[in-house]
Amino acid sequence: MSTERTAVGAGVDAPPLPSSRPVVGGVATGTNRERTHLRRNLHRFLVGNRLNLVGVVIVGTFLVLSLAGELIAPDDPYRPAPAVELATTALQGPSWSHLLGTDEIGRDVFSRIIAGARTSLQVAVVVLTFAVAIGTAVGAISGYLGGLADELLMRLTDLFLAFPALVLAVAVAATLGRNLENTMIALSTVFWPWYARLVRAQVLSIKEREFVTAGRSIGLTPGRLLLRHILPNAVSVVIVQVTLDVGYAIAATSALSFIGLGAQVPSAEWGKMLADSRTYFPDSWWLFVFPGVALTLTIFAFNVLGDGLQDALDPRSGRR
Amino acid sequence: MDRNAEDPERRGTTNVASLFAAAMTGRLSRREALHAGLRLGLATPVVVALMAAAKDPTASAAPVGRPSTARGVAQDGGGTFTVAVISDIDDLDPNYAYDNEASMVLLGAYEMLIQYKGAATDEFEPMLAQTWENNEDGSVYTFGLAPNATFHDGSPCDAEAVKAAFGRIIALAGPPDSAAVAAVLTRFVQSPDQIEVVDPVTIRFNLGRPQPLFLAAMASSYGVFITNPRVIEENRTEDDPQAHLALQETIPEGAGTGPYRFVEYAVGERLVLTKYDGYHGGWTGDEFTDIVIRIVPENSTRRLLIERGEADALTFNLTPGDLEPLRANPAVQVLEYDTTRTDWIIMNVPRLLSVEARRGFSHAFPYQAVIETAYRGLLKRSGPVADTIRGADPAVFFYQTDTAKAKELLLAGGVAEGETFEYVFPAGDEVQRTVAQLFQANLAEIGFGLEVTEIEGAALSDLVYGDLPAEEQPHFIGGWSWWPDYNDPWNQLYPNFTIAAQDGGGSNAGDWENTRFEELMTEAATYTDEARLTEIMAEAQNILTEQDPACIYLGQVRYYTVLGTDIQGFQHNPLYLDAFPFYKMRRAAG
């Protein structure tokens, strides 16, 4: 998980990325050249690279399934087949009536994968919202104030980063108890320090720029400077990192569910479905192949999307 | 623009070998890795679906390649018998161990005085004792030992040694170092003074009052194995006065009298026994010379081992779904038989309020679906006592699945509409996961929630045997199984339903209690008349089911043993779960 995460712009010397036009005292700091870069890179992102397009399509499909799953799913993903039909409907392979087969209690695997998409999205949104909120607050305060506050907050961050992320997540989830809510808390615990580091680096860089100096000289309060002028300039880096981390959050959730610490029955979380399918290996292959493929494709797609966005939003990438 | 098109060197990475080479030399970019991964992800379901579609429909029924040399050799006798088991053996001290997997191993190296005969639960045959008799009222039992019996160190196993071995078991009944399994003996014999050495090969037990179940207890595969007093004496320390021969790094040399002796233990891998030449039963040359217990946690791996001929036997630890392909595989034999084990769901009585509520849950349970789907037919309805145990009531009350009636009873019993209950079951138990989900679905149908959590087996045991107050325990503990140590309904019910078995005294984790039931149990403990026992037990079982349900009773479990087709001489017994009569088994010549 974290050991493989790609931190975007984590170095203090990383160039600040233009997002919205920062305006200080009526002076526009965004330039036409930067906007041209952005347009050209976005065009290249969507049209010039087929891989990005595939990523966008898969992520789009994932979002549609997550948000409108009930309308698409052919069956109830949680309700077992009626008792009288169980003997004939359980563990049936793919067919026209059940495209991806049925599980041990006759539930439609396709419907469960759709339901699992919603669970994955829900986990990713909650985990990353908390991680970004906490990380941004800590990083912004640390970077802007500097000095003792910076020391204290960064040592605290280091403390969390010192543990291997998945081990820490397992420890937190095991301590809190086995369920999806606790998994989300555990993952938020391991994700936020990365955002704290990232935002701090951005703030350290941006606070030295002229528009911030100008703002300070006309008497803007530190809070206003931070919230209205510094953080908006750091946001694009955070967005790219979030896009990359969606895949990791989904993978980490599945990993915890796979070892029994995350989702519980009757959840259709993909890692849980994979874990439950092990005992049916190798006869009921559809029970592990399809959730595995859904998980793999989603994680890859979010990685591709994040990678592409990073290229598109990075002004230096045009020179590569 | 595709960057690969500009770079002939990178274009080559579309080929798998060069992709791998690029990865090895560090030239594979993150983007290329993603690209390859995405292709793999897209291609996998197509390939798997094609492979599945192309599979020969009879493939699973075809004989699986069985290398002629894979199993122990010895077409003319001897050779190795390999059993694949699911987990390591926790304790190999025959007077401490209290689980069926340990007993399976111990039955190779140690002996009781007598054993159950074949599949019978009320007939016996010789083991260490060759003869036995009792006086008219069943208060004195005399055993004639095999005159040539020796321990694995060559020392004689005479009546003095047997008395000393029973003395150790009696000492283990209480502090400072106690073993729960000692109760199998101490229910009948509380003091070494009750054991009399008549001559070197004759030992007598003076029980003080009629004990019709003494022979049944002496044939138990729990706790009443004979251990070498010399080995115990040599390993005795101040901290460990009974020389707990717990584990494997220190497999005791010469402690048993059985046909096989321990020679090797590799933690988490295997346990090896080899034939003891001096065994009092003698050797014909057809028996196995080595017994290998392989520890293989994964179900699918164990199944592959027997399909490929690398194991000779599997115990009752596959998923029921694995059985169908194995039944159809002519290279293995799947033997199915009734046992004394019954499965139930413990109900937390203080938290589930009333008798009506517990009856309601019993009606909400999907019995037939569980039998067909979770157990795949390896379960039949029963109360808390299996019909293979004496005293089982053939007319025991069964709840039928009736969700409408269940809801009515639950509401009448004080349960609030829409209430959610907690349910735990042992992690990794596929059968119990299915049971939980089917029950959950039935409760959801009538508007109640069931929050299901898997917990580790050790944590579940702590819940059951711990002394947590009822309000801190879940409403239901699923996946609980019990079978008696010997053929006796009291032995089945007492540890699970009496007040003495609450708060760590036994496995009455639901804190169920019933005054009349306590009276019946007291009477059953000292019964002498079989007809009266049947009456007592019929009433007790009715209290536990219809009158005041303590649990949701799923039923009694049918076991299976999977063997290679060339293995002969296996005989199951409903009380010896997962056991093998190693000494009587052979590999067919041919």
Q: What is the element layout, followed by pairings?
A:
The complex is a heterodimer of chains A (320) and B (590).
Chain A: E1 23-24, E2 27-28, H1 32-48, H2 50-72, H3 86-89, H4 109-145, H5 147-162, H6 165-176, H7 180-206, H8 210-217, H9 222-258, H10 270-277, H11 286-313
Chain B: H1 3-6, H2 8-11, H3 16-24, H4 30-54, E1 80-85, H5 100-109, E2 114-116, E3 124-126, E4 129-134, E5 140-145, H6 159-171, H7 183-186, E6 195-199, E7 202-206, H8 214-218, H9 229-235, E8 260-266, E9 270-275, E10 290-295, H10 299-307, E11 313-314, H11 320-327, E12 332-347, H12 355-364, H13 367-374, E13 379-380, H14 403-412, E14 420-426, H15 430-445, E15 449-455, H16 457-465, E16 476-482, H17 489-497, H18 515-525, H19 530-547, E17 551-564, E18 567-568, E19 586-587
Parallel strand pairs in B: 1-10, 1-11, 14-15, 14-16
Antiparallel strand pairs in B: 2-3, 4-5, 5-7, 6-7, 8-9, 9-10, 11-17, 12-16, 12-17, 13-17, 18-19
Helix pairs in contact in B: 12-14, 13-15, 18-19
Structure in words:
The complex is a heterodimer of chains A (320) and B (590). Chain A is built from eleven helices and two strands. Chain A is mostly helical and 320 residues long. Chain A has a single domain, classed as MetI-like fold, CATH 1.10.3720.10. In chain A, a hairpin with a 2-residue loop joins strand 1 and strand 2. Mean pLDDT of chain A is 84; it is low at 1-30. In chain B, a hairpin with a 2-residue loop joins strand 6 and strand 7. Chain B has 19 helices and 19 strands. In chain B, helix 12 runs antiparallel to helix 14, helix 13 (367-374) runs antiparallel to helix 15 (430-445) and helix 18 runs antiparallel to helix 19 (530-547). Chain B has helices at residues 3-6, 8-11, 16-24, 30-54, 100-109, 159-171, 183-186, 214-218, 229-235, 299-307, 320-327, 355-364, 367-374, 403-412, 430-445, 457-465, 489-497, 515-525, 530-547; strands at residues 80-85, 114-116, 124-126, 129-134, 140-145, 195-199, 202-206, 260-266, 270-275, 290-295, 313-314, 332-347, 379-380, 420-426, 449-455, 476-482, 551-564, 567-568, 586-587. Chain B has three domains: 3-54, no CATH class; 80-331 and 565-587, Periplasmic binding protein-like II (D-Maltodextrin-Binding Protein, domain 2, 3-Layer(aba) Sandwich), CATH 3.40.190; 338-559, Dipeptide-binding Protein, domain 3, CATH 3.10.105.10. The radius of gyration of chain B is 28 Å and the shape is globular. Chain B is an alpha+beta fold. Chains A and B meet through helix 2 and helix 11 of A and helix 4, helix 11, helix 13, helix 15 and strand 15 of B.
